[in-house]
Specification:
Number of strands: 5
Largest sheet: 3 strands, antiparallel
Number of helices: 9
Order of helices and strands: HHHHHHHEHEHEEE
């Protein structure tokens, strides 16, 4: 009986060893199956992502193909603008220098005469002149409009003249639109608003000239105080290495940021 028991125990141990080996192999197969499933899911996700990218690329290519004609037209227009730049800048300079005080109708007629003269002299220029297209910056013009400048062509041209003129602008402004525009545009630059009737207008003007802050002189009549003549004519000079100007009996430093 003991011999039979020993044989049975030996057989049991052999079977247990076989079972353990089978279980270990099963665990190995399960891990392998899990890894393969994860790899399969990863590949499916990559396939989906590639499909989405392919669809987007096809959409983009299709859209760009439709833009080709517009790009060609834009390139041609830019080439023509570059060719006409000499004449357009010449007419723009004349308008800024000489036509700021005139009406829109007179400006247009005079600019058209200048365009015709450019054509006679074989100077390339645009057939229909536009100051805003030549010297204007659309982003800056939009800022002007938001600050209160009217959106009509005449007002925008006036803004461009004010920006580009070498002399200080005199604004005939019965509706107060230019006054509002200047105050809004220069609000963050500590704009100094003065009148000739202010008792301390000379002192405020001196401080603005020295520190480079903008000045708005309101209610200007037909005659101006003679003390303003050096400022209006920008009669600056160098003294001791510094840029100076005479204001009345005083000589003060002149900041290049003053306007």
């Amino acid at each position: 009986a003991e011999t039979e028991l020993a044989e049975a125990m030996t057989l049991l141990k052999t079977k247990q060893d076989s079972l353990r080996m089978v279980q270990e192999k099963l665990e190995t197969l399960k891990r392998s199956f899990k890894e393969m499933n994860e790899k399969k899911e990863s590949l499916e996700a990559q396939v989906l992502l590639c499909s989405q990218k392919l669809e987007r690329a096809e959409t983009l290519i299709g859209g760009l193909g439709g833009e080709k004609a517009r790009w060609l037209q834009t390139a041609a227009e830019l080439g023509q603008t570059y060719t006409n730049l000499t004449g357009d800048v010449l007419v723009s300079s004349g308008m800024v220098a000489y036509l700021g005080a005139f009406t829109a109708a007179f400006r247009n007629s005079q600019c058209q005469e200048w365009v015709q003269e450019c054509n006679k002299q074989h100077i390339p220029c645009s057939a229909v002149f536009s100051l805003s297209r030549t010297l204007g910056d659309p982003v800056k013009i939009r800022e002007w409009n938001m600050a209160g400048l009217p959106t009509d062509t005449f007002s925008v041209d006036n803004g461009i003249v004010v920006q580009n003129a070498r002399r200080w602008p005199l604004m005939i402004d019965p509706q107060g639109q230019a006054n509002k525009w200047v105050k809004n545009m220069e609000k963050n630059n500590k704009l100094v608003v003065i009148k000739l009737t202010d008792p301390d207008f000379v002192r405020n003007l001196e401080n603005a000239i020295q520190f480079g802050t903008p000045v708005l002189l309101e209610n200007v009549g037909e005659e101006l105080d003679s003390i303003l003549e050096p400022v209006l004519l920008k009669q600056t000079f160098k003294q001791g290495g510094a840029l100076c100007i005479r204001l009345g009996d005083a000589t003060i430093e002149y900041s290049k940021d003053f306007r």
